[in-house]
Design goal:
Blueprint (H helix, E strand, L loop, with lengths): L5 H23 L3 H13 L2 H20 L9 H60 L8 H6 L5 H24 L7
Helix pairs in contact: 2-4
């Protein structure tokens, strides 16, 4: 069994609890209609809901075939009901997916902000290490890599670099697919 350092476990627990509490507050402040949509889609996405639908459809058909033919084959009323259910479930699922995407975007933004803060903290530590190395007379060649990283990183510059690399990669891949491959042989 894994054992986590007690201090790390306490900090992690506090962090998780803070995030969960913030999410609870956000959910409680969500409009009632959206909370209802979330509950309905959560319930509809279960094996129980599938079984309930199968049970209703089978009972409908058996009842119509063996007891009272109030909706004879091809079961127009049943098809109408199923179509309405499909329409409403589709819209509810789309709303639910939009809500999940917004939640994911919030978490992504939190993750990005935490990474940016961590990067600044590490940069500050590296600057301190460089300063301590200078004070202690450690040769520059021993701290070369630390010195190279002891400056702030521009997130927009890194993003621009990623976009350029992706563009170059797409051009290379497109160039490879446009040219016939040499036959090996």
């Amino acid at each position: 069994m894994d054992h986590v350092n007690d201090h790390i476990a306490q900090v992690t627990y506090r962090n998780i609890e803070n995030i969960l509490c913030a999410e609870d507050v956000r959910r409680n402040n969500t409009q009632l209609l959206y909370r209802a949509v979330a509950k309905v889609t959560q319930a509809c996405g279960t094996v129980g809901f599938l079984a309930l639908n199968a049970f209703i459809f089978i009972d409908w058909i058996v009842f119509n075939e063996l007891i009272v033919k109030f909706d004879p084959f091809p079961y127009t009323l049943l098809l109408f009901g199923v179509s309405l259910e499909a329409i409403f479930l589709s819209v509810l699922i789309l709303i639910s997916q939009n809500m999940a995407a917004a939640e994911s975007e919030r978490r992504h933004h939190l993750d990005l902000q935490m990474n940016l803060l961590s990067e600044r903290e590490i940069t500050a530590l590296m600057r301190l290490v460089v300063h301590m190395a200078e004070k202690n007379g450690i040769p520059d060649e021993k701290t070369e890599e630390v010195r190279a990283f002891a400056h702030e990183t521009d997130p927009a510059g890194v993003l621009h670099q990623i976009v350029r690399a992706e563009h170059r990669h797409r051009l290379v891949v497109a160039g490879e697919t446009a040219q016939p491959r040499a036959k090996s042989g």
